[in-house]
Structures are given as structure tokens and as C-alpha cells.
């Protein structure tokens, strides 16, 4: 849940502590709604946990947020674009962390064999 909130913070350029606070600032609430929608949609946490993460005390904020986002998606192309960008960043960031952890557990010999195999398949490899 923290990773998704960080992706939204980076995308929106709203500090994490501001996203976690109960507020009436529309720009912040917009991204809090997106957070609730994605967290519930991807079953990252329960509605009460998601609401508490944003400084709310019950599940109703998360559920209302999800309902509103679904409604707005029917006509708001900018919202759809924002959600798609956040989803893809979150998805690839999550996968990159998994790959990094797996690579960290490999020996140099194993990494060398994977790189050789990739080259034999015609794939481009880059040092990192």
C-alpha cells in the first residue's frame, strides 16, 4: 500500500504526508480518490485500512472514492489517463523491485549465463 501511495505522490508531486492527511483541498482529494480506487481494485488492502492510511476513520471514504472514480471514468479522459499512468508506473516499479531482489540473490556465474542466453536470443543487454 505504501508503494502505491509513493507512486501517486511522485506522479502528482504532492508530498506523502499531505496525501495521508484528511483535507478539503480538491487536488489532494482527487489523488486520494485514485489511491482508494486502485488499492481496492487491486485488492491491496481492505477499505478500512485504506481509509485509515488517508487519515479517515472508517471504510466509507474508500468505498465512496471507488464509486465516484468509476462514475467519472465514463466521461473524464484525463482521469483515465492519470489512472493508467499511475497503474503502469506502479506495476513496473513493483516488478523491478522483485527483479532487483532476485538478481541480488544470484551468483555472478548465474547472471553471466542469463546474459549469454539473452544475447543468443538476439536481445539487447545493458550493464547497470
How would you describe this protein?
By secondary structure, the protein is an all-alpha fold. The chain has one domain: DnaA protein, C-terminal DNA-binding domain (Chromosomal Replication Initiator Protein Dnaa, Chain: A, Orthogonal Bundle), CATH 1.10.1750.10. The chain is 73% helix and 0% strand. It is built from seven helices and no strands. It is elongated and about 55 Å long. The two termini are 28 Å apart. It comes from Robiginitalea biformata (strain ATCC BAA-864 / DSM 15991 / KCTC 12146 / HTCC2501). One of its GO terms (molecular function) is ATP binding. Residues 2-69 form the Chromosomal replication initiator DnaA C-terminal domain.
Question: What would you say about this model in short?
Answer:
The chain is 73% helix and 0% strand. It is mainly alpha-helical and 128 residues long.
Helix content: over 70%
Text of the CATH class: Mainly Alpha
- The CATH architecture comes to Orthogonal Bundle
* SS strand fraction: under 5%
- The number of distinct structural domains comes to 1
CATH homologous superfamily classification = DnaA protein, C-terminal DNA-binding domain
What low-confidence regions span 5 or more consecutive residues with pLDDT below 50?
A: none
Number of strands: 0
Structural topology:
Layout: H1 2-12, H2 16-19, H3 26-41, H4 47-53, H5 60-73, H6 77-104, H7 108-120
Helix pairs in contact: 1-3, 1-6, 3-5, 4-5
